[in-house]
Specification:
Length: 137
């Protein structure tokens, strides 16, 4: 497969993913995490990449269907389900950084670092690595 074909396939997949998540957000608007997870579980489990059987749940999950933990694709399927549910619910991860007040001097230094790193490929990773490196000294 040529580089051009690969890049075009990746871009097509990215647009399809975005459109699919947008459609699911509309379908599950206002629904609780558990309801979204329960609705998407059989769909993710039945994807040809995973094909994880659903089995009767035990203990807390009694009376429901859950992924078969003994299946070879269990972990990959579970993570895929978690990621899709998180996207559908619009969760961005931890909001602890939003709650933290950042001093003006640090904001200015971070802006300068971001500007410098933007000139390189993988700018975010470069900036994170640079900060981690600075803390290690």
């Amino acid at each position: 497969m040529s580089t051009k074909t690969t890049v075009h396939a990746v871009i097509t997949a990215a647009f399809a993913y975005g459109e699919g998540i947008a459609s699911l957000r509309i379908a599950f608007k206002g629904k609780a995490r558990d309801a979204v997870t329960k609705a998407l579980l059989p769909e993710v489990a039945s994807h040809p990449k995973y094909l994880v059987p659903l089995v009767p749940g035990e203990r807390k999950a009694a009376g429901t269907k859950v992924l078969d933990k003994t299946h070879a694709n269990y972990e990959a399927c579970r993570k895929a389900l978690q990621r899709i549910v998180k996207e559908v619910l619009g969760e961005q991860g931890s909001s602890k950084t939003e709650e933290m007040e950042i001093p003006e001097a640090i904001l200015k230094a971070a802006a300068q670092l971001a500007k410098l790193c933007a000139e390189y490929e993988g700018a975010r990773k470069l900036a994170s690595t640079a900060v981690a490196h600075a803390f290690s000294k």
